[in-house]
Amino acid sequence: MRRPPPARLGVVLAAAVGLSGCGGSFGMPDSATEQGDTVLDLWSPAVIAALAVGCLVWGLIIWSVVRYRKRNDSLPTQVEEHIPIEIAYTVVPIIIVLVLFVFGSLAYKDVAATSGTPDHRVTVTGFQWSWQFAYDGTDVVIEGDGEGNDGPELVLPVGETTRLDLQSEDVAHSFWVPEFLGKRDLIPGVDNQIDVTPTEEGTYRGRCAEFCGLDHWRMYFQVRLVSPEEFDAWLAEQEEAVG
Is 153 within 8 Å of 221 (Cβ atoms)? Predict the structure, then answer.
């Protein structure tokens, strides 16, 4: 079997590495919230830029190895400096870092922003080894016992903004739903808040993303995203059950 020349082999390898990370979200889960969409809008171009830089670097390495491989015992031309190239490989990375910093800061501002008038508020309390979800303005409280694999269920309406007030009863925990593309810590004595605006109906699994003790692995919960009409019916049903 004929082996491809080194240069062609390098191109094939670079393409394989690049394509291995290609997908709708470049390894990220599909977003289920507006905040997650913002993260993906930053993540995908950043990955593409990283792949482009990686292919360029590997291409230059392979080209140098092939172009300047030893052919005889003569000493190749020695060059001490090349000012334009040195300026280029200093300035270009700085520009890339500045661009990523600016867009990253704007994305973080959007993701961390909280609405002055959220449609709903839920107090999320983490404790060893489960969760409690208390819907503000109602008597509805959903609490897990830490025994099941799924944990308690947090129900949220699609297309409406819900403020999650995060608190801990004991040690540091972390509220994480992979499809939300973000997490926020629950720290004793610290008031943390996040807004989530779901965009896709469905059921998603959340968990504690901060090691909080030996049974940390049991801190699962479910998030069910439903239509506003279904949410209102569910909330009324829960209030009736409590009453």
Answer: yes
In terms of DSSP bridges, do strands 182-186 and 220-226 run parallel, antiparallel, or are they unpaired? unpaired
**3-class state of residue 179 by DSSP:** helix
What is the CB neighbour count within 10 angstroms for residue 198?
Answer: 27
Reading the block at residue 43, the tokens are 């993540």
Residue of 7 and 231 predicted with greater confidence: 231
Of the candidates 139, 131, 205, the residue with the CA atom closest to the CA atom of residue 164: 131
At 2-43, the pLDDT tens digits run 444 444 444 444 444 444 444 457 788 889 999 999 999 999
Residue whose C-alpha is closest to residue 40's, from 175, 242, 199? 199
pLDDT confidence band for 148 (50 / 70 / 90): low
Helix H, strand E, coil C: the string for 38-65 is: HHHHHHHHHHHHHHHHHHHHHHHHHHHH
For Cα atoms 211, 165, 148, give the angle at the middle one, nearest 5 degrees: 50
Q: How far apart are CA 226 and CA 243, in angstroms?
A: 24
Q: What is the rounded distance in angstroms from the CA atom of residue 42 to the CA atom of residue 100?
A: 9
